[in-house]
Amino acid sequence: MGIVVQKYGGSSLADADAIKRVARRIVEVKKSGHDVVVAVSAMGDTTDDLLDLAAAVTPLPPARELDMLQSAGERISMALVAMAINDLGFTARSFTGSQAGVITDAQHGKAKIIDVTPGRVTQAIGEGHIVIVAGFQGVSQTTKEITTLGRGGSDTTAVALAAALDADVCEIYTDVDGVFTADPRIVPNARKLDKVSYEEMLELAACGAKILHLRCVEYGRRYDIPIHVRSSFSQLEGTWVSNDPKPGQEETTMEQPIIAGVAHDRSEAKITVVGVPDKVGEAARIFEALADAQINLDMIVQNISAAATSLTDISFTLPRTDGQTAMTALARIQGEVGYDKLLYDDKIGKVSLIGAGMRSHPGITSKFFGALASAGVNIGMISTSEIRISVVVDEASVDDAVRATHTAFDLDADEVEAVVYGGTGR
Amino acid sequence: MGIVVQKYGGSSLADADAIKRVARRIVEVKKSGHDVVVAVSAMGDTTDDLLDLAAAVTPLPPARELDMLQSAGERISMALVAMAINDLGFTARSFTGSQAGVITDAQHGKAKIIDVTPGRVTQAIGEGHIVIVAGFQGVSQTTKEITTLGRGGSDTTAVALAAALDADVCEIYTDVDGVFTADPRIVPNARKLDKVSYEEMLELAACGAKILHLRCVEYGRRYDIPIHVRSSFSQLEGTWVSNDPKPGQEETTMEQPIIAGVAHDRSEAKITVVGVPDKVGEAARIFEALADAQINLDMIVQNISAAATSLTDISFTLPRTDGQTAMTALARIQGEVGYDKLLYDDKIGKVSLIGAGMRSHPGITSKFFGALASAGVNIGMISTSEIRISVVVDEASVDDAVRATHTAFDLDADEVEAVVYGGTGR
User: Fold this and answer.
1) A175: part of which helix (H) or strand (E)?
2) Mean pLDDT calculated for residue range A167-193
3) H/E/C letters for each residue in chain B?
4) pLDDT band at residue A87 under the 50/70/90 scheme
5) Residue B54 — very low, low, confident or very high, per pLDDT cuts 50/70/90?
6) Which of B71, B73, B83 has the CB atom closest to A65's CB atom?
7) ipTM (interface predicted TM)
8) So where does substrate get bound (chains A, B) (predicted)?
9) How far apart are CA A261 and CA A201, in angstroms?
10) Chain A residues within an 8 Å CB radius of B69
11) Of residues B222, B184, B217, the one with CA closest to residue B200
């Protein structure tokens, strides 16, 4: 039997009772003959509490010290999980990210994993121990400093360990039953997906589905690690993310649904640069300024210029948290570029339809837009990939748009399946 | 200007405001031209909270994981102190015990420092940074595991760093103004000592004065590091522990007081083994059994055997927390040794008179015992060293005994000097 890597988030480790429940679950897997390596997040609100403390000390904490501070959170949860396992008659060893060989670059607060050298982990496995590893943290290769991986970090730790240990599966435990065809808080009869491809999951994650972070899925795809997303509050099968058929099942491509799901995102804002001279290099100058300000753009639309004026409008979406920075960067180049004015709108939302099957099925776009029209939803911007169509709509129309699309593509389940428990960020 | 090492305890780091106050104090020293290295304990009740969590998970946490858990406490406080220093326009780098090169043996929960290799600390000092080090923790030389140093650990970290860095002074910040001639909660007009020798401080610490731990003083004496015990809540000079005259003062041996202070201890119990056959080897068998049970004895008294019976009684004191273990170990050898019965008394207290001057001054003992008699205090057991006389009395008589002794040796100050703020264990 091979190695099973599991990851438990903060909501699964909220208190001593939750930790004991997680320990029982881990021990069951060990009993079934697998070696088990577990990545853990900080307990419940620990990270928020630590960040509150930092904010009370200084408005501008140095990134190095912020990482040192936050890394204490997983140290607490991993030691407690190891103790709880010990209490059940099994032995466990906890390791910090550094001890587990999670080597990162030196970007504090959003470090990237560049190598995993799990010598102490494999030794502990060889000695028969269950291994608990601090998620979300590592040590920088050049400076030997403690780093944290940023959002989705613990998931990424788990998948990276699974790849380094050549594990059979990476189980991501969360507070929902798996990946759904839409957010069950908006669409109560959304269906849980049994299986989704890495490609679809990447688009879902990029388009606002919060269940798995982009980096984790990218890592899984690169190293071909099957990811099983499931609830720590039930024994149900969750959603398998992989390019292979679900273990134990035949390939089911023939019956594969065209659409995997409908994602939505309310975290973006839209900026329109009005009256840009339609000359070579003007648009480039605008996007150069935004890149210099370290802003990641999402959708970009340039109108065809009105022939009479030779002026054009350029619109783009970006994270709302970057809105102020982007407006400042653009205001600074107004004289140079000579545009007319800037419009800022943060009352928008993005709705995306995702499915690998749409590649070969014409008519998806018209059906999508028809559903939106029937629901009285106005489309602002449009962008597409091979397996995705996204539209920007009024923030107030997002729920209606998601529901109408979900129904139009026959994604509704016969009865309500979903249970939503809460949510964590890490 | 040389290196100043400081140590701040948990009560000096209780919350964000306290941390900011400590940061201002650290920065003042840096401004005066010194390099500063600071050892910190965990904030306020953090350690107790973590231990409560562990107790909620399992009644018997493995020592390795308990150390991993507890070490998170200093990680939090050190990062926050570094942030607060940064907020004042200075740069600070925090280091875990392991990063700072605090190398220990592998005894989890009570590890001993066997080496300090502060390469990263000296490098950071060289780069102009203030250095914050996690107290109370290290890394084991052989197993590379996180260890904690047990009681008094953060003080010991500070003195060990001071020795390794060849610091000018090790300042131990606490919640009282220094070392007093007696516990100010019992003797309100106890006087703060300006200076005390290592030898006297060792006896004071061993006899119940909780202000500095024995190990810290031993370390200071071995490496001749002047220790300045002072309050983090005031700017007053505290007490210098060293064998040299206080810096800036002439040697004052001629005027050195005979008595440094009166210490008391309510943490011990007394066991009497009644009716031990007065034969060679019987006492040895008793103490062997206690040693096997890892029990540290304090005072030991054996009565002269009654000639008629050839039986003797052996009494000794030990930490109350070891009482049950000792009684069990002794009960197990009753058949072998053939003693009559065991008596257990935990309603005792120890009062000690300490002073390097008593070596050369006869009459100290009679004056001490006379004071106790006048106060109506009955003496149970007696033990002496060159610079100390200790007596065991009824627990209820301890306060009277301390006050009577303090007055008899003219230690009372003209007015009340002491302010006591609270207390921490670490």
Assistant:
1) none
2) 93
3) CCEEEEEECHHHHCCHHHHHHHHHHHHHHHHCCCEEEEEECCCCCHHHHHHHHHHHHCCCCCHHHHHHHHHHHHHHHHHHHHHHHHHCCCCEEEECCCCCCEEECCCCCCCCEEEECCHHHHHHHHCCCEEEEECCEEEECCCCCEEECCCCHHHHHHHHHHHHCCCCEEEEEECCCCCECCCCCCCCCCCECCEECHHHHHHHHHCCCCCCCHHHHHHHHHHCCCEEEEECCCCCCCEEECCCCCCCCCCCHHHCCCCCEEEEECCEEEEEEEEEECCCCHHHHHHHHHHHCCCCCCCEEECCCECCCCEEEEEEEEEHHHHHHHHHHHHHCHHHHCCCEEEEECCEEEEEEECHHHHHCCCHHHHHHHHHHHCCCCCCEEEEECCEEEEEEEHHHHHHHHHHHHHHCCCCCCCCCCCCCCCCCC
4) very high
5) very high
6) B83
7) 0.82
8) 47, 74
9) 10
10) 75-76, 79-80, 83
11) B217
Name the residue ranges covered by the structural domains of chain A: 3-251, 260-410
The beta-carbon neighbor of A50 closest among B50, B53, B76 is B76
Residue B51: closest C-alpha in chain A:
A80
Among residues A257, A246, A235, the alpha carbon closest in space to that of A195 is found at A246
What whole-number distance in Å separates Cα of residue A115 and Cα of residue A94?
Answer: 20
Tokens describing residue B232: 């983090």
pLDDT of residue B311: 86
- Is residue A360 very low, low, confident or very high in pLDDT (cuts 50, 70, 90)? confident
Spell out the residues 6+ positions from residue A42 whose beta carbon is closer than 8 angstroms to its own.
Answer: A10, A13, A50, A70, A73, A74, A76, A77, A136, A426
At residue A306, the pLDDT reads 63
> In chain B, what is the straight-line distance between the N-terminal and C-terminal CA atoms, in Å?
30
Q: And the tokens for B7?
A: 């140590």
**pLDDT at residue A423 tops 50:** no
Query: Which chain B residue has its CA at the smallest distance from A90's CA?
Result: B62
Sign of the Cα torsion B203, B363, B268, B8 reads negative
For B406, what's the count of Cα atoms within 13 Å in the CB-facing half-sphere? 24
**What is the CATH number assigned to the segment(s) B3-251?**
3.40.1160.10
Residue keyed to tokens 């080090």: B133
CA-based angle B325:B330:B332, to the nearest 5? 100
**Residue ranges of the alpha helices (H) in A235-322?**
282-292
CATH 3.40.50.300 corresponds to the domain A260-410? no
Q: Which residues of A touch B (CB under 8 A)?
A: 15-16, 19-20, 50, 53-54, 56-62, 64-66, 68-69, 71-73, 75-76, 78-80, 82-84, 86-87, 91-94, 99, 120, 144
Report the interhelical angle of B214-223 vs B153-164 (nearest 10°): 10
The whole-angstrom distance between residue B76's C-alpha and the CA centroid of its chain comes to 24
What is the per-residue burial (b if ≥16 Cβ within 10 Å, else e) of A237-263? ebbbbbeeebeeeeeeeeeebebbbbb
The half-sphere exposure of B395 on its side-chain side, counting CA atoms within 13 A, is: 10
pLDDT per residue over A315-354, tens digit each? 999 999 999 999 999 999 999 988 999 999 999 999 999 9
Phi-psi sector, B232: left (phi>0), alpha (psi -120 to 50), beta: alpha
pLDDT digits (tens, 9 = 90+) for B145-160: 999 998 889 999 999 9
Q: What is the phi/psi pair of residue A403, to 5°?
A: -65, -45
Helix (H) or strand (E) holding A194: none
**Residue B252 predicted with pLDDT over 60:** no
B25-52 as b/e, with b when 16 or more CB fall inside 10 Å? bbbebbeeebbbbbbbbbbbebbeebbe
Q: Which residues of B touch A19 (CB under 8 A)?
A: 57
